[in-house]
Amino acid sequence: xxxxxxxxxxxxxxxxEQVQQREQDxxxxxxxxxxxxxxxxxxxxxxxxxxxxxxxxxxRLQIARVAQERSLPKEQVxxxxxxxxxxxxxxxxxxxxxxxxxxxxxxxxLK
Length: 111
Fold this sequence. Notes:
The protein is mainly α. It has 6 helices and 3 strands; from the N terminus they run H-H-E-H-H-H-E-E-H. The longest helix is centred in the N-terminal third of the chain and has 18 residues, at about 15-30.
């Protein structure tokens, strides 16, 4: 699988269609209502497709699924997500984020 950006701009019809399809897929998969907010990082691919971080909101949306797949209590998964949520760099650059690699390694260690 390539690890480069799509080169689609904000006015691209193809990008709009991809995002709308992702939104529909996510709503169906997580059984979300039409008014439920979906974290933008789940709708848009990262520039390289290799970003190891997701937003805390994206991580929280997946708690039930991850807990079920790993046979862990939801509360335990939520606690580990909080532990691996990094603040904005120097408290002001960027936004809080969850390092998915470190999170998964920690969850692996709970079994």
